[in-house]
Amino acid sequence: MLPGIRSLAVAMHLEIHRVYNQIIRNLFIVEKRMSADSILTTMPIQWLSMSSSDFPDEILDWLMELGSMTRRFEQYCDHVHVVPFRECFITEEEISDESDHLPISQRYWLRETVLYGDNIPWLLGRTLIPEATLTGPDEKLVDLGTVPLGRYLFSSNKLTRDYIQKGKHGKRWARRSLLRLSGKPLLLTEVFLPESPVYNSKI
């Protein structure tokens, strides 16, 4: 190989290596930034007392839904799908008052999603699962991907619900449920977005 061509080849190799390293660094920065984000960080949810009467009947009917919210949404559109926002293990230090509702665990599986009805965002979902819940067949909870949580939960005859908390996230209605699979707990928070049928449907 001629000296000039060899020098050019070396220079191109070094430039490719530099660009590759920069891409890797950028991806690491983006991943680190995303891992620190939460779908619900814009403002805290104000949880209301169980005896509060500030709920219109049509809203209360949605907030106290005991069946699958996914299945109920399907009555108002042709297609429901879920887009994961964040899925990872986090520590107790990374959760807030949610720790009051769950047993102490070294790690919790966090899953945050946006649920769409006919490609319109209707619901923000945040599921927090102690590691001890992820045993036996329920290990599948970490691999749901784009499957709505309700499809998995309500396919089991061992699902129970301890309680529902009602709240507001800004002007949006929200709720939080402590659920159990075969007695093992998980905490589900749902925020209903403005285009959701929650705000324009009748009982």
TrEMBL record:
<feature type="binding site">
    <location>
        <position position="69"/>
    </location>
    <ligand>
        <name>substrate</name>
    </ligand>
</feature>
<feature type="binding site">
    <location>
        <position position="190"/>
    </location>
    <ligand>
        <name>substrate</name>
    </ligand>
</feature>
<dbReference type="InterPro" id="IPR007440">
    <property type="entry name" value="Chorismate--pyruvate_lyase"/>
</dbReference>
<dbReference type="GO" id="GO:0006744">
    <property type="term" value="P:ubiquinone biosynthetic process"/>
</dbReference>
<feature type="binding site">
    <location>
        <position position="149"/>
    </location>
    <ligand>
        <name>substrate</name>
    </ligand>
</feature>
<dbReference type="GO" id="GO:0005829">
    <property type="term" value="C:cytosol"/>
</dbReference>
<keyword id="KW-0456">Lyase</keyword>
<dbReference type="GO" id="GO:0042866">
    <property type="term" value="P:pyruvate biosynthetic process"/>
</dbReference>
<comment type="similarity">
    <text>Belongs to the UbiC family.</text>
</comment>
<keyword id="KW-0670">Pyruvate</keyword>
<comment type="function">
    <text>Removes the pyruvyl group from chorismate, with concomitant aromatization of the ring, to provide 4-hydroxybenzoate (4HB) for the ubiquinone pathway.</text>
</comment>
<keyword id="KW-0831">Ubiquinone biosynthesis</keyword>
<dbReference type="Pfam" id="PF04345">
    <property type="entry name" value="Chor_lyase"/>
</dbReference>
<dbReference type="GO" id="GO:0008813">
    <property type="term" value="F:chorismate lyase activity"/>
</dbReference>
<keyword id="KW-0963">Cytoplasm</keyword>
<dbReference type="InterPro" id="IPR028978">
    <property type="entry name" value="Chorismate_lyase_/UTRA_dom_sf"/>
</dbReference>
<feature type="binding site">
    <location>
        <position position="111"/>
    </location>
    <ligand>
        <name>substrate</name>
    </ligand>
</feature>
<comment type="subunit">
    <text>Monomer.</text>
</comment>
<comment type="pathway">
    <text>Cofactor biosynthesis; ubiquinone biosynthesis.</text>
</comment>
<protein>
    <recommendedName>
        <fullName>Chorismate pyruvate-lyase</fullName>
        <ecNumber>4.1.3.40</ecNumber>
    </recommendedName>
</protein>
